[in-house]
Amino acid sequence: MRGTLVGCGFFAENHLNAWTAMRETPLEGVELVAVCDRDLGKAEAAARRFGIPHFYGDAETMLAEQRPDFVDIATTLPSHRALVELAARQGVPAICQKPFAASLEDAEAMVRACADAGVQLMVHENFRWQHPLLEVKRALDEGWVGKPFFGRVQFRHGFDIIANQPYLAEDERYIIMDVGLHLLDVARFLFGEAGRLYCRTARVDPRVRGEDTATMLVDFASGVTGVVDLSTATKTEPEPFPECLIRIEGTEGTIELDQGYRLVLSRTGHREVRPVDAELLPWASRPWHVVQDSVLAIQRHWVDCLREGREPDTSGADNLRTLELTFGAYASAETGQAVVFG
């Protein structure tokens, strides 16, 4: 299977490492044949580093000349719609990094373009593919808690995100668009679809224009009351970044994903702790290794879906529901009112 990638920035390195690992696994047989970046020097450097035969400064030219089996769009938000619609016009299935779109209108247009062209579209929503979170989902599906009634999804830390991604400091919508949509997607993955959401935000770090803390109260149709809680302004030790912490309470027991990647399963008179850290891949480094492992997992899922002709778990259509919650959170924070979803 021949792939191409657009965008050779900070996070794209994880995509490139994962594709390289898949190329080197004979049974997977996936090869990136070209990379593209507006900065041709970045594209050339990535091609040389990862042994990719072609590099481009223009995505349209790359897709027309290479005619790949898919394109991985690892660019920032402003370019997503144009690139996804370009892929659709050329009949190329596309992966798109998150945040998928700046508006529901843009997201719906991309989903429609790919559907009309008959090509697959997946959003690179990798949090739910983190190994510790998959283990939480497994325990939940196995019925450990009985019927769940409360769930908390938390990502609070003080790691300097701006140092690696300085453009985020200029965004008027910061933490919910950057990380909150990941947590809302995880909450949907665990608890189902939401019916009502209330959100409060604040800005603590003077370097950023947008909100850097947010707390959401979410009512799920399943009967779960959820709290989705995130911050990049939290000063604590040991630093929890980039761990997503979980607590789920049910009629029979409790599931907790604690700091240090410990899955704690408890019921009255019983408690067990399981280590659920992700594998440290040869190209990965701590503390990013859990995220890096999830990138490989979601890219494998994408390839499996292409080969089997099935819709990805985080398809463009599915991500519309995550974006609806994301934009609903901003609407709630701005108005002070809860948002109800149909």
Beta-strand content: 15-25%
Strand arrangement within the widest β-sheet reads: 14-13-12-11-7-10-9-8-15
Low-confidence residue ranges: none
* CATH first level of the largest domain: Alpha Beta
The secondary structure category is alpha/beta
Q: Any descriptors?
A:
342 residues, alpha/beta, Dihydrodipicolinate Reductase, domain 2, 2 domains, six-stranded parallel sheet, 10 helices, 37% helix
SSE layout and pairing:
Layout: E1 2-6, H1 12-23, E2 31-36, H2 40-50, E3 54-56, H3 59-66, E4 70-73, H4 80-89, E5 94-97, H5 104-117, E6 121-124, H6 131-141, E7 148-156, H7 161-164, H8 175-191, E8 194-202, E9 213-220, E10 225-231, E11 245-250, E12 254-258, E13 262-267, E14 270-275, H9 289-308, H10 316-335, E15 339-340
Parallel strand pairs: 1-2, 1-4, 2-3, 4-5, 5-6, 7-10
Antiparallel strand pairs: 7-11, 8-9, 8-15, 9-10, 11-12, 12-13, 13-14
Helix pairs in contact: 1-9, 4-5, 5-10, 8-10
Description of the structure:
The protein contains 10 helices and 15 strands. The chain has 342 residues and is an alpha/beta fold. It has 2 domains: 2-119, 3-Layer(aba) Sandwich (Rossmann fold); 128-278 and 321-340, Dihydrodipicolinate Reductase, domain 2, CATH 3.30.360. Strands 14-13-12-11-7-10-9-8-15 form a 9-stranded mixed beta sheet. The protein has a 6-stranded parallel beta sheet with strand order 3-2-1-4-5-6, with helices on both faces. The mean pLDDT is 97. Residues 5-123 form the Gfo/Idh/MocA-like oxidoreductase N-terminal domain. InterPro entries: Gfo/Idh/MocA-like_OxRdtase_N, Gfo/Idh/MocA_oxidoreduct, GFO_IDH_MocA-like_dom, NAD(P)-bd_dom_sf.
